[in-house]
Amino acid sequence: MTPINMLRAFAAALPLAAISLPALADIKDYEFRLVQSELKQGNGVTVAVQLIDKRSGKPVPDAVIFARRIDMAPDGMEMMASTIEGMPATEPGTYRFKTNLTMAGGWRLSLSAKIQGETGTLENKLILKVVP
């Protein structure tokens, strides 16, 4: 094969190589968003979040949430925390938690998750308002 023919073959194959490469994402391309940012005070309150791919705006299912905490840090009471437990999902990309929101005011929901196919850990802190 002559150098010119090799160059032509390489140029012809280049677009095919670009098509077959997967789109590369970064853990920063994802975020949790509150479904409701204002909730009623009480025991057994359900807090729901969606995990969103910011590039497409689509929900991301099957993430593994391995750390979660809810506390009153926005009101200067970080030590005022409540238990929080995962609940079954009702729709893909939506993650639900049951907690006791014992006081009205600002609450911070902290989540850490692994997303399938991505390296790194997604960590988000979301602020919600609890009303009487």
Automatic annotation (TrEMBL):
<dbReference type="Pfam" id="PF13115">
    <property type="entry name" value="YtkA"/>
</dbReference>
<protein>
    <submittedName>
        <fullName>FixH family protein</fullName>
    </submittedName>
</protein>
<feature type="signal peptide">
    <location>
        <begin position="1"/>
        <end position="25"/>
    </location>
</feature>
<keyword id="KW-0732">Signal</keyword>
<feature type="domain" description="YtkA-like">
    <location>
        <begin position="26"/>
        <end position="111"/>
    </location>
</feature>
<dbReference type="InterPro" id="IPR032693">
    <property type="entry name" value="YtkA-like_dom"/>
</dbReference>
